[in-house]
Amino acid sequence: MLAAQQKAAQKAAMASAMQAAPRVATGRSVVASRTMSMGGARPMNAPAVAQRAAVRRATRVLVSAIANGATAPVEKTSNPMNIVFVSAEVAPWSKTGGLGDVVGGLPIELAKRGHKVITIAPRYDQYSDCWDTSVVVNVDGESVRFFHAIKSGVHRVFIDHPWFLAKVWGKTGSKLYGNRSGSDYIDNHKRFTMFCKAAIESVRALPFGPGEDCVFVANDWHSALIPLIIKDVYQPRGQFKNAKVAYCIHNIAFQGRFWPESFKDMQLPQSTMSKLGFIDGYSKVFDEKNPLDDDEKPSDSWSGPFNKLNWMKAGILAADKVLTVSPNYASEIGSGPDKGVELDSIIRMAGGAEGIVNGMDVTEWNPKTDKYVPVKYDRNSVFEGKAAAKAALQAEAGLPVDPTAPLFGYIGRLEEQKGVDILLSALPKISNAQVIILGTGKAKYEQLVKSMATKNPNFKGVVKFSAPMAHQITAGADFILVPSRFEPCGLIQLHAMQYGTFY
């Protein structure tokens, strides 16, 4: 991933640059630098100024090297760990957004550093590169199998059960959780309870598993029961005594709220209700029986109280460490009920969240090697490469091939959070430019996007999940549109910068 690669290369570059820099008193100069950067009044001393100048020179060399395809040396850890990522998505096998990208790319970088890394996700499709391990475990009366692949030094494990494969079958994007946005599968609480329990059992049942001494990294509401089950079920029995659980929030807007009646299907001890219990003011849980209408928005007014279960709340309270995808987002979600979506007090109770900026997989997102880009390019050939990519994108999308027309691209969910309603309302006011939108989401926005081309030949909508098209838009567009009302981090912007596309 870029962030990790940059840090490793930067360390090596800095070490070289520091040899030419004046020697400084280690602690004092660092404190002076930090004070100045945070707006303090105390000036940096001369050695610290020289050190920072050397760092800047080293950084410029580093950025130039990475931009031209140089690879950074990987520093091996002196303390290798057994790390188990549990996630409902893992790219490229399954993905609706940034969650899949992170769980696809970050484990590879950790494995390079000497850690033993496993990812565990549902098997939604007949993945051709994954094999049946023949290992079967019983989870609450259900027989669960495990499929397996090793990619780039990472063990990829897939939970096999009809609740995933038969329901979703195929690269269906947002349909991993429901047939459409705002209409979750009625049995999601059963599906993902089984997923969490099977994921925990897999580390003991699989021959390549790390056993009980490991660090679990649970992600978003779908795997929020991992810390709860480890801490409140297994450890009181004397099992997984040394296991630790980090819980990472990728988007706090999706919390896994269910009616209390679903608790009996989860087959957890009554003691877990102290962490799962939640009260909100909403009279609905949006699922197949009570879907969110296209024109309906959840009310901001309190009409409760209504007792619910909140999986994310339980994950936060049970985890050893709460993480999120950027320092700014970590601050936001604990700041108040609006940005914390009613979990701000729970986050503060847990001691806050630590924000670690997302990174991108520079192996997948690299215009110099991208298999979906017709003419490979780097910083020295960006104008020629992007011109070819733009023409290819226009032709592929059915837009007029015109190098002089500004081309705007949007890649993301078709929902209010992403600001797609703002974008669509602005389209009639756009002239002398081309727009292409790629994504899935709410039915009303999908229909509007599909109808774009009928209203203006310079507009094109693609309502599906398409990795090739996402790469083609990132490379071929002049501008990437990010009209989001809020973004936990935003990988789209990182991709755009990597490909020389404005956002």
TrEMBL record:
Pathway: Glycan biosynthesis; starch biosynthesis. This is Starch synthase catalytic domain-containing protein. Belongs to the glycosyltransferase 1 family. Bacterial/plant glycogen synthase subfamily. InterPro entries: GS/SS, Starch_synth_cat_dom. The keyword Nucleotide-binding does not apply. The keyword Glycoprotein does not apply. One of its GO terms (molecular function) is alpha-1,4-glucan glucosyltransferase (UDP-glucose donor) activity. Residues 82-348 form the Starch synthase catalytic domain. Keywords: Glycosyltransferase, Starch biosynthesis, Transferase.
